[in-house]
Write a structure and sequence with these properties.
Elements lengths: L2 H21 L9 E5 L6 E5 L6 E3 L6 E3 L22
Antiparallel strand pairs: 1-2, 3-4
Bound molecules: zinc ion.
The site of zinc ion has 8 residues, from loops.
């Protein structure tokens, strides 16, 4: 039995696991940001996920608003035509 080889084989997945834990995409739980839009001036507002459901103020027009806990996905405005809307 080659102990060194066993250690090596064990170290590789352990190292991969550590790297995964360090760089995994979901690791941003603390700094997760939600995005909403000001109902008055339509300014995009980013806020920390842990502030969802609380009140906030639009940084642009100072409009008081409630930060939604489950913000609806914003419509992409990057040249994509929306389906189902007729253009006049
Ligand atoms: Zn505003």
């Amino acid at each position: 039995m080659n102990i060194g080889l066993l250690l090596l084989l064990g170290a590789v997945p352990a190292g991969v696991l550590i790297v995964y834990l360090l760089v995994r995409p979901g690791a941003a739980a603390v700094g997760a940001l939600h995005l909403t839009r000001c109902p008055r001036c339509e300014q995009k507002i980013r806020y920390a996920a842990n502030r969802a459901g609380r009140s906030g103020i639009c940084p642009q027009c100072k409009y008081p608003l409630t930060l939604p806990s489950a913000p609806p996905p914003l419509e992409p405005r990057t040249g994509r035509k929306s389906i189902g809307l007729r253009r006049k």
